[in-house]
Amino acid sequence: MYTGWMRAFKVDREMDPRERYATLPRSHVGRSRQRLCVIRLNSTYLDMIDRRFRLRGMVLTTTVLLINAGLAAWGLRRWSTRVPEVLGGPSGDAPAYVLFALLLLVQFALLYWLILRRDFFTYKYYPIRFNRRTRMVHAYTDGGPDAVISVPWEEAHFHVGEGKGERYLRDIRCHVLDGEIIRHTFVVGHYFDDEDKIREVWEFIRRYMDEGPASVLDAPAKPQVDLSVADTWKNCHATVVISLGQALLPLRGLLMPVLLPLVACRWLVLKSSRQPVWPQQILDESVIDAEDPHRWPEPQYIGQFDEKADGRTS
User: Fold this and answer.
1) Among 10-14, 92-96, 98-102, 197-201, whose mean pLDDT is lowest?
2) 84 and 223 together in one domain
């Protein structure tokens, strides 16, 4: 799940045979669906979400925070009850308590460096922009606007990627090549455990770039963005519930005591992070026509348009 995030992609190498075999076709491959991967769509550009977005502030970060909080509470309790006695008496236990405090601090620093710093105080999401007018693909990175990866659409090598630890997971992966050498790698959209879903998202992108925004949909889909990236409690709750999958979805009420820490942690992570801002040159190339007929409406929260379709109030 954490490929390309906690575990960096290997670059400055040649493609392996599997990556060449998994190359995504530049012709029609079947159904087209956005699958909560689209952020914005209009006649000029298509913005897609990044692979890590659905994992932000979720199980790994929440678990680390809870462990740290538990250890800190236990350590402070021990410190407040025993240290005054130790320091004020003849006991030789003082060095042991100082060592104990140092070990706690080292453990907190290590977990922050390995995990929490990759989630907190970063960017809310890392968009990938497909510009039809310039025929360019731009990927936002941890380095911010000064480190955006840009590659011509026709030169980008898109293929079906697989997870390292969870090899059954699939995603749309892009290599930026320098001759035969991979210089950069980024992922477009969410990861799935079904390659057919990956190919549906790829077909959506391919149609947009090669056939235009009017061709991306298969009936009865409606021209609207389904995903909201607003850092609201409602969106965080919706993301956590969706992550349960169909099997556990009916049990979400019973699981709420477990889910609420995930919702709270995701909310804190997104609130601590910055909004991504494209470099000025990319913004200048991404001007939208005032009367663009293919500018899709964007929801204020996940599921807003589905509620309206069902006749419920939002």
Assistant:
1) 92-96
2) no
